[in-house]
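Hi all, long-time lurker, first post. I run a small reading group and we've been trying to get comfortable going from sequence to structure in the token notation. Rather than ask abstract questions, I figured I'd post a concrete chain and ask someone more experienced to write out its structure so we can walk through it together at our next meeting. Sequence below, copied exactly:
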Amino acid sequence: MSAREPQEMAQVAAETGAKKVHRTWDRVLVSSFLAGAYIAFGALVAITVSSGLDPETWGTLPTLFMGAAFTLGLVLVLIAGSDLATGNMMLVPLGAMNGKLGLGDVARNLTLVLLGNLLGALFVAFFLAVQTGVIGEAGASGNAGLTYERLAGIAEGKALGESPWQTFLRGVGCNWLVCLGVWMSLAATSVSGKVLAIFFPIMAFVAMGFDHVVANMFFLPAAMFAGVPDIGWGETGLNWLLAGAGNLVGAVIFVSTSYWYLFLRDQPGTSPAAAAAEPAERA
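-- Answer (accepted) --
Happy to help. Here is the structure in token form:
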């Protein structure tokens, strides 16, 4: 059985969203830098384990392997503790819906977290993926060449192979699943329970090829740093905009609003536990 029932999960989620806002900007920035780096680590290991697998032999299994490996990113975010924009897109608006925050609080938090996520993802993409040689160059031999080809295929598909409407919808589907993983992790109080709750939704969105704006902050710049042709900042920025908009819709409409309506709409805006915790969070 769950350690928490859905009603309790909804209250915890709203209180968590409020706590994320009531911190100094520098702590939010550092926390979100870490989350961007953690997602980039998950993306890098996902590329590594799925490289060199010929689709004629393996079919679509490489995407399953990639999805399973990518779960590392969200496990690090939630277990180690950090701020990921896609999770905050569910938690922080839910806090606002429950009367704990204003729209300005939501906008400021998401903007700062997206910036920190971008810096963390870019750091890993440039220094730990490309400069280390884990991602090789075109024509490179061995593992470095295989990872280059795999990254090039992923980046070209996301930047050049999807229409704007497809990217947006893939963003919606992605963050609906990501936020369900975050939501279900609130039901567990053990590390193993949280990891299990995270694994299947994250594996699923990656296996289906959906678009996660922070993961794309790694994939597309890493491809440019590695010299993949025909991918520039224009295509990259458009992908981030569309995927991010889809991620926001997936989080707010399909998770935050749905569960607020089901479990919090008729409840008091602030629980006694939340009221006692908020002054400490502001300090």
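A couple of things your group might point at:
Confidence is low (pLDDT under 50) at residues 270-283.
Residues 138 and 176 are 35 Å apart (CA to CA).
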